[in-house]
Design goal:
This protein has one helix at about 105-110; strands at about 5, 10, 20-25, 35-40, 45-50, 60, 70-75, 80-85, 90-100, 115-120, 120-125. By secondary structure, it is mainly beta. The strands form 2 sheets. Strands 2, 4, 5, 6, 9, 10 and 11 form a 7-stranded mixed beta sheet that branches. A 4-stranded antiparallel beta sheet has the order 1-3-8-7, with no helix packed on it. It is globular and about 40 Å long. Helices cover about 5% and strands about 45% of the residues.
Amino acid sequence: QVQLVESGGGLVQPGGSLRLSCAASGFSLSYYYVGWFRQAPGKEREGVSCISRGEGSTYYADSVKGRFTISRDNAKETVTLQMNSLKPDDTAVYYCAASPLTTVQDMCVKRTTPLGFWGQGTQVTVSS
């Protein structure tokens, strides 16, 4: 079965850190651009960070630059989002997506994911 599974969400205090992982099953993630997206209640889904297949290119939304880091381990078929200095505004459901035919810019800004897959999401709550 082809699927993406996110893990690592949870409740954290402001200033804390979380590490999200996106794992693929049924296909080889190494051939795909991968992105992290988030959606807060009442808001549109937004691209947070995206990474190219060979890790040569990355994209970060302005709101997370300097705080979040995306990386991938193609041998383990996983993509990780390290989130530091978390703020209450980071509270959202975080989704990972994979697409073989896009760019990091198109994926994160335009949410273009042709022939792609989406995970079910993981909740991140930043609150004291």
